[in-house]
Predict the structure.
Amino acid sequence: NIAHPTLDKITFFKKEKSNWIKTFGGDLLPSSQWERRSQDFIFSLSTKKESLYFFKIKNRGGTNVPMTLMSEKYFKKHKQSNDLFFGGYFMVLTIMFFYNLIIGFHLKSKVYLTFVGYLFFWTLMSLGLTGFGRYILTDLLIFSNELFIVSVLCVVSFFISFIKLFLEVDKSNKVFEIFILIVLGLIVLTPFLGLRNSFIATALIGGVACILSLSSIIYYFRKSSSARIAAYSFSILLIGAILKVLSGAGLIPVTFFSEQGILIGALIQLVFLSLGLAGRFKNIQELALEKEKDMS
């Protein structure tokens, strides 16, 4: 079991009798060419005590190969647990999406609708990142390649727009608008840059977005309760991302929390922000009621 759904191409060689057998995996190949259709890349081993195997791996991004040997029985149990976790994760995201979408349209609120956009593209990005999208929804190659990059850029764009509205940043501050225009330009250029260059550009844009968001949150931290909610939620997501990076670099053991920490952190972040929006809506209602009382 290779738990890295974004690897481009894997060729697995195993010797059976006097012949070498090749099987394949990778997100640049349709799942019909994989040895087994699954969220991760699965390869069957010989039942002999000693066998010789080779892997040939091609990848345009960071190449980390988290490999686990499993018995058929353990694999089925592992797959069942994974399906349960990711099914629950995406179900919660779907419920949150429709809940906030209905409220956003009802209130005609820009901040709600930008949050819904962020939530939608985060879900789309997560489907590509975890391999769950091609496993459950579609086998289109674009889903885990070009569309994945576009979804990441859209996540960045909507998140920056949301932070600007959520923190009520001064309208005279044009940094956010300029940054969003740069991201939109990169989305248009993605088909022409090639996947590797697009990944590099996206990583740079993501880093700048983090700095811009964190600096704004810190600046408004004491002035705004919204900034404090954003700070707490962002820190949880950051902890999950750090665990993922450390496990990918081999600095900490690969565990469920190190691998899925970023998804769990993101889910907690989205819940915090959703509650923050609900609290903000409640405050607006209370202010409107107070004004009505004053007028009467």
